Amino acid sequence: MINLTLPKNLILLVLISCSACSSNVPTAAEEQTTVYEVSDQPLTAQPAEALLEHSNIEYMRIKHHMVECEGFEVDHCFVAQKEGSDEWVYVYESIEGFDYQWGVEYEILVQAQEIDSGFADALSLRYTLLEVVSETQHEASEAFQYLSRKPHERIVEIAPGQFSLLNNKIFTCTSDTCGALRSAIDQEHSALLSFRQDVDPSMPMVLDAVLCNDAAESFSASCL
């Protein structure tokens, strides 16, 4: 006769194994209530049109040259057109991450954030570059005008025939145009200047002409 009696410890091991297997098998109710999570992250980057739907995202077209402007201090400002407007306006704030170069016109997307300016009841904007949409080099043959209200304070001759605008942009001039500019500076006149960009935007601009200069109090009536 064959003895079918198994040792107690072997029976116990088999029972424990079966119990573990049954605990890993989902019941019918569990199968019906299984929930799959779907990531809410976009599969691709949002196009420019979608970004513009957000109120803090702005499109700007930036001119190829900056202008003198007076906010809390005298500085250079961007000249920009914003989405939906034909008007050119001054942008007093810097744009974080934007490597601007004179002589190049830009179309950009920025994020605008209101910040405390440090002055009572006054807020300022902080712009952060999101995308450079396009870059177009300005034609070197096309002159543009630049107004300096106090060239004796804001235009410095850093070498013979070489000047700096607000310690920001360098330009050169001929003996005639240099002489006219020096005369306006010596008399502490405001001046309307004509510049041309170099073919290479990284090179100094060229002073094409001193179009008009006069004392500050009569300058607007005489020159503008």
Major beta sheet summary:
7 strands, mixed
Shape verdict: globular
Q: Classify the oligomer.
A: single chain
Overall SS class: alpha+beta
Q: Total number of β-strand segments?
A: 13
- Taken in chain order, the helices and strands follow as HHHEEEEEEEEHEEEHEEH
Rounded average pLDDT: 81
N-to-C CA distance: 124 Å
Q: Enumerate the spans where pLDDT stays under 50 for 5 or more consecutive residues.
A: 1-47, 50-54
What does this structure look like?
It contains six helices and 13 strands. It is globular and about 50 Å long. The protein starts with 7 loop residues before the first helix and ends with a helix. Strands 1, 2, 3, 4, 5, 6 and 7 form a seven-stranded mixed beta sheet that branches. The protein has helices spanning 8-23, 28-32, 48-51, 151-154, 175-186, 216-223; strands spanning 57-62, 67-70, 74-82, 89-91, 95-96, 104-116, 123-137, 144-148, 155-159, 162-165, 169-172, 190-196, 205-214. With 224 residues, it is of the alpha+beta class. The model is unreliable at 1-47 and 50-54 (pLDDT under 50). The protein has two domains: 48-137, no CATH class; 144-223, OB fold (Dihydrolipoamide Acetyltransferase, E2P), CATH 2.40.50.
